[in-house]
Amino acid sequence: MERRGQVVILVAILIPVALLLLAVAVDAGRLYLESARLERAAQAGDASSMFQLGQMYLSGQGVAQNFHNAREWLERATLQGLPEAFYQLGLIYNRGQGTPVDQAKARDLFERAAQVAAHVDDRNRGRAPERLAPGDAFLQQYVEVGEGQVVGG
To answer: Which of 15, 106, 119, 138 would you label with 150, given CA atoms 20 to 30 Å apart?
Structure first.
């Protein structure tokens, strides 16, 4: 009888662990498929996909973490005028993620993010009044980073 109790306890422990591992595997597979979809869209010139793919490479979610690939996709997104890409690149240089810390380059990228976002906001003024002015938001984030400080380690 004692052995049967041990088996029940072992099964009670192993089933949740197996389910957790299955959930992790399913999520990893979903992220992998998403990264493949984004790669195709980014190669076709979609700026949002370039940005999202850069974020995936930066975080290592769905793809192997690769700062070089992250910078490359984010730089391509900046060429499409995506303010979030300028800002994220600024953070990369501010933190020294896969590159030496470069405060001057980070500051320039933060300022470009604010300028591009303000330009986008000017074009969209009146269309979405509930939306925050992105130029102001990026500029505020830049001010919060502060000159000469590395944020987010």
So the answer is: 119
